[in-house]
Amino acid sequence: MARRMQLSELEILQTLGTGSFGRVKLARMKSTNRFVALKILKKFDIVKLKQVDHVNSEFAILRQINHPFLVNLIGYTQDESYLYFALEFIQGGELFTYLRSVIKLDNNHAKLYAAQIVQMFEYLHRMNIIYRDLKPENLLIAADGYLKLTDFGFAKRVEGRTYTLCGTPEYIAPEILLNKGHGKAVDWWTLGIFLYEMLAGIDPFSDEDPMAIYQKILKCKIKFPRNFDTDARSLVKHLVVIDLSKRYGNLKGGSNDIKNHRWFSGFDWSRLLLKSLDMPYKPRVSSPSDTTNFGNYPDSATLSPPIRASDDPFLDW
């Protein structure tokens, strides 16, 4: 369980990444010598950009989840200017970086990654949480080669439908674009896009112009490269489908329709969850504090202005 921490418990080190409201830094827990990824969010910017509900939702979800394929929250704290989330430090960096270096994956490798996404979504959906932002940038590779899903900023607890427009252009589901209300089925659409991207080296609706991407999504005509695995092609077609009554993951069989698809024939789902299957790629990691799989970021010199206690929406965390 995540606990409230004191900032003095941490030695804050170099930056691992940057985001809309702040950055993620490597930090060392002084009492245990454990290294964590410290997400530092600027309260001033969150309030100014009207993102308080999003951040509250992310925090509530992080406190609830606990799964081997999700980045888990270890502790949290705040001061007058910032919120701090101490998360598991996943040393292999983003899947995006790895995919960019290899261009595309072989069938077995893609299958191992896709299967982990299925189990991530199964777990979240059982808790009525939709993730809504699957993309290679939000998947980290652990030292054992397994994936960890991170960044729950767009995740939301939903019993039925929600109407927020959110997501990444290439991955966004048509029902979000059409603003008809959406639910868990959007995550299965993104799995289909992700599967295509792993095997083809490019997303199926790629374009320089986001509006052109949206038009392609609504037409939903996918061209497959000639060497694209036949069974994988079949699964993508069952996932990347506009009609929700035909989209796998959203039918009566739920995620079992995906797990029982012929592309996954003979796949050992229980060994995957136990992490006893060998991963084809394991990142090079030399020590518990090794950050070489992350980019170099200059440290920010600008301080976030404090928020008056009377205006601080996070004080009761």
TrEMBL record:
Name used for this protein in its record: cAMP-dependent protein kinase
Region described as Disordered: spans on this chain: 286-317
Domain annotation Protein kinase: ranges: 10-264
GO biological process, one term: anatomical structure morphogenesis
GO terms of molecular function: ATP binding; cAMP-dependent protein kinase activity
A Pfam cross-reference name: Pkinase
Keywords of this entry: ATP-binding, Kinase, Nucleotide-binding, Serine/threonine-protein kinase, Transferase
Binding annotation for ATP: K39
UniProt-listed PROSITE patterns: AGC_KINASE_CTER (PS51285), PROTEIN_KINASE_ATP (PS00107), PROTEIN_KINASE_DOM (PS50011), PROTEIN_KINASE_ST (PS00108)
Domain AGC-kinase C-terminal: 265-317
CDD domains: STKc_PKA_like
One term under GO cellular component: cAMP-dependent protein kinase complex
Family label: Belongs to the protein kinase superfamily.
Biased composition (Polar residues): 286-303
UniProt cross-references to SUPFAM superfamilies, sorted A to Z: Protein kinase-like (PK-like) (SSF56112)
